[in-house]
Design brief:
The chain is α/β, with parallel strands linked by helices and 296 residues long. The chain has helices at 40-47, 69-75, 91-99, 106-119, 135-146, 165-180, 193-198, 260-269, 284-292, and strands at residues 2-11, 14-24, 29-33, 55-60, 63-64, 76-79, 153-157, 184-188, 201-206, 209-215, 223-230, 243-247, 250-255, 273-280. It contains 9 helices and 14 strands. The strands form 3 sheets. It has a 6-stranded mixed β-sheet with strand order 6-7-8-3-9-10, with helices on both faces. A 4-stranded antiparallel β-sheet has the order 2-1-4-5, with helices on one face. Strands 12-13-11-14 form a 4-stranded antiparallel β-sheet, covered by helices on one side.
Length: 296
Amino acid sequence: MIEAENLTKMYNNFKALDGLNLKIEENEVFGFLGPNGAGKTTTISLMMGMLQPTSGSIKIDGIDVAKNPLEIKKMCGYLPENVGFYDNLTAKQNLLYFAEFYKMSKDEATKIIDDLLELVGIAHTADKKVGEYSKGMKQRLGLAQALLNDPKVIFLDEPTSGLDPQGAADFRKIIRNLKKEGKTIFFSPHILSEVREVCETVGIINRGKLIAKGRIEDFKQNVVIVVETDPPLDPSILETFGNVKVKDSQAIVEAERDCRIEISKTLTKNGYTIKELHLTEPSLEEIYLNLVGGGE
């Protein structure tokens, strides 16, 4: 559905995006992660046809974005991090204005808008001027705008920014329902935990380069096995299983896989009584920080 090949964007001598290759399947919820300034918003802007690439190409549903930007805008929805509306108009008036770009009749647009405002949870404030809206309410209105044209592909750039926990949960529920409707969703969150909640695949970008991509379960790195024995363990016994460190009365084994059964047999064979033997896996947050170097 979305395919970027060697996508590069230069600003004078600064390379904001450096040879990005990315393929996202139809009806996939894709999480796009990276530090501030890594190239996330630039990537979305290129995919939406709002920027022209310096080199490389992007196709959405087989259509070249750079050559057919208007066609792309008809089939895509976009919720930017900072949503812009006319403050002196009501929520409904704003959406009616944007509906004109899609050549909708007023009756058709009104029906769609009423349904969307209900969907995003602000139907009760439809006739309130947007200048009186909170940031969270504007985010909800922005999602309604992004869905106005019933898009095949939806780009969400930090969509839950400014929302309270209930609002963020509502957004995640809407994303899951959009997937059930067959939509393809490109989701760039500001909170890593949201990726686990809604995304199937993840890409991590840093300094303009895609440094990792795969299903969330593919990101599992070395496991950590915690061992405590009586008498205290000689760590050299477990060195064949991985890197071993001793901390207080415990041995910490960093291994490529879960090898607790083999460790248990080795300990028993060497006359140790096992007091504790458990496994921990790195969280997505830990993996992310490891890949991007621990900071922005």
